[in-house]
Give the backbone structure.
Amino acid sequence: MTVLVAYKTFAGATGEVAEFIASVLRDEGIPAEVCPLREVRDVRPYRAVILGAPVRQFRWEPDVVKFLQRHREALSRMPVAYFAVCLTMKEDTEANRCLVQSWMKPAFALLQPVSEADSGGKPPRAHWSKMRKPLVRVDSGCKL
Ligand SMILES: Cc1cc2nc3c(=O)[nH]c(=O)nc-3n(C[C@H](O)[C@H](O)[C@H](O)COP(=O)(O)O)c2cc1C
């Protein structure tokens, strides 16, 4: 089964990061599909979902929370991971990570991810190993 990387973007950066994540998964032999959030009708056909959106005006794009509310039941049965794209993460410091995670809290409150990541842009491939590790360690025991 395929992993869905669903994203919201305004200027294109988050879509590029979504494509990049999918390419890393495919390189690992994991089928992955990329789709804008608004075009996703049903998440049940997927084995896992990775949700990405930018930060604007000190908040993570609220459409992610709406998406989580709409698909909560199905998503609660599968591994879900989040990523945020924002200028704050141009400097990858502990303080900036905490700040960005505080903006992602409404999503965390609805559904705890198996992994989250913050990016100031398309990251070097090596950085995603941090994200992939938690993704393959899934509570239900199923492997991505
Ligand atoms: C109107 C606006 C507000 C923004 N607010 C923030 C912010 O509060 N914090 C931050 O770190 N980045 C902020 N940014 C930067 C965006 O998160 C960044 O440009 C991101 O890459 C945009 O993603 P997108 O190209 O997928 O739309 C803002 C950008 C815009 C245009």
